[in-house]
Amino acid sequence: MNTEQILDSYVHDVARKLPRGKRNDIAFELRSLLSDELAARSRSEGRQPDRAMVMSLLNGFGSPTVAASRYHPLPAVIEPADTHHFLLWTIGGSIAISLLSVLGPTKRVEGAPYFQWLGILVIVFAFIGLWRRANPGVMRWKPSRGLDWMPRPLALLALVATIVFPFFMYLAPQTFVRVMFFGAIPDHGVELTEPFRTSPLRLATISVLSALVVLYAIVLVKGRWQSWINWSFAAAHASLGVLCLGHAAAIEPRDGASMIAMFEYADANKVAAPIFALTGALLILCALYEGYRETTRIRPSPARVDG
Prior knowledge:
The chain contains twelve helices and no strands. The chain is mainly α.
């Protein structure tokens, strides 16, 4: 190939990586630029252009992919600004999948769900980036009140909701069903077995739920979050998550029987086991996120000067 053919080949490969509507114009501009640069180099060196001179010139421009990106930068599938959240969702989802796999019917962790979760995240974040580029300025920053903001009405709502669900529901499921559904639904299906009523698992769960009620009451009185309260919630949610996983492992029927039957009605145990497993996994993720927020809390202060 002579020098002109090499330049034409390079320009062609660059243009193929550009949007169709821009190819011809940019190819013409790039071909003219390369010809001028090659002629200037030939005059500077006092010799006719050859293959070595052309390749040296093109090496300075970079590969066709690099050169094309200068004319039309391609957006990343996951934008750099979203990398942090992508990693958090990836790690959190992987933890949840691991917990649910261990407690699932197969009791085995397989690789397919992880790749499926990763694929879903890539598609979701790609669409987020696409929407953001198509609507510049729409996703504007809005000021937040910080981690410690908690209005009393919202704290009261959280306290009442925690007392009703899950505390009251777990403490007396039959009464809960009668009250919430006005007696329209039979409650015998959620009758607790006597061994479960006095089991350490249930007593520990009631204790943790009581602690959550107390914590929400403290938040209501103070009208704000505090670091020690956030850490207490993280510990309570982690403990409750582990206890929920313990429920799932204990009440799931194995070989026709459970380690400890929660309900007198056998089918209720079959339904409750996966619900407890999912709830436990979500609570542990919630606790990890709460701990992460506290460990990354911003406390503006001047940098320490050594010496």
